[in-house]
Specification:
Length: 213
C-alpha cells in the first residue's frame, strides 16, 4: 500500500505542476487553500487504487458531531480506509497543528466508522502539507518532515541556485509525535519541490506523511 500512496503523491505533484504552469490561482501572498491538497490527492489516490467501487468524502464527520477530518477514501478492493488531513505551513504554530491532526486520528476510537457500513481490515492516516521555502523556520520544514539528513536531489539544486542551505530543525515530526506516545517510526514521509519545474512557484514544496494505524 505504501507504493500506491507514493504513486498517488507523485500524481498529485504532477497535477500541481501542470496547473501552475498554466496559471497562478492566487493574488499577492494568499497562497493555496488546504482544500486543493485534499481534492487533488483524493483524485490521485482513487486513480492509483484502480478500484471502481471506491468512495470518498470531504469534511468527513468524526467522533464528535462537531468534528470533521479533511477527507476519507474507502477501497473495498483493498479493504482499506484512508483518513486524510491537510495543513498549510504558513505559520510556525501550524507545525503543532499537524501533530494534533495526526494524534486526533490515530488515538481516536474509530469503531463508529462501522455505522457507515464501512468495514476495513486496514486503516491509514495520511497527512498533507505545503510550505514556501522562505523564512528560516520554513526552510527547516523538509528536514523536520522527513526526520533525516537526506533530501531529494532537487533540494540540493535549490540550495545551489539560492546560495543558501536548508535550515536544520531542533526537533522532527517523528520526535514530536513520540512525546505524545505515537509511534511514527514505520511511516512513509515524502517531500517534493514543485518549484523545481515551475518558476512561478520556485519556493513551493508539497509534503506527505502516511502510516498504517
Amino acid at each position: 500500500m505504501e507504493k500506491i500512496i507514493s504513486i498517488a503523491f507523485e500524481d498529485m505533484c504532477g497535477t500541481y505542476e501542470r496547473m501552475l504552469c498554466s496559471f497562478y490561482p492566487a493574488r499577492d501572498s494568499t497562497g493555496f487553500t488546504e482544500q486543493n491538497q485534499v481534492h487533488n490527492f483524493v483524485n490521485a489516490l482513487k486513480t492509483a487504487l484502480d478500484d471502481e467501487d471506491s468512495v470518498h468524502w470531504l469534511e468527513f464527520p468524526w467522533v464528535k458531531k462537531s468534528e470533521h477530518i479533511d477527507g476519507m477514501v474507502f477501497s473495498p478492493k483493498y479493504k482499506s480506509i484512508f483518513y486524510i488531513e491537510a495543513k498549510r505551513l504558513s505559520k510556525s504554530i501550524q507545525k503543532s497543528l499537524v501533530v494534533d491532526d495526526i494524534e486526533r486520528v490515530v488515538s481516536s476510537d474509530r469503531s463508529f466508522i462501522n455505522c457507515y457500513d464501512l468495514y476495513a481490515d486496514h486503516e491509514y492516516i495520511i497527512a498533507l502539507s505545503d510550505v514556501w521555502l522562505e523564512d528560516k523556520w520554513k526552510t527547516a520544514i523538509p528536514h523536520w518532515w522527513l526526520g533525516s539528513e537526506d533530501l531529494p536531489v532537487q533540494f540540493q539544486s535549490w540550495e545551489h541556485k539560492h546560495k543558501r542551505k536548508l535550515a536544520k530543525p531542533k526537533s522532527t515530526l517523528q520526535k514530536e509525535l513520540q512525546t505524545r506516545n505515537i509511534d511514527w517510526v514505520n511511516s512513509n514521509s515524502l517531500v517534493y519541490l514543485v518549484g523545481g519545474k515551475v518558476d512561478k512557484v520556485k519556493n513551493y514544496c508539497l509534503l506527505l506523511a502516511s502510516k498504517k494505524i
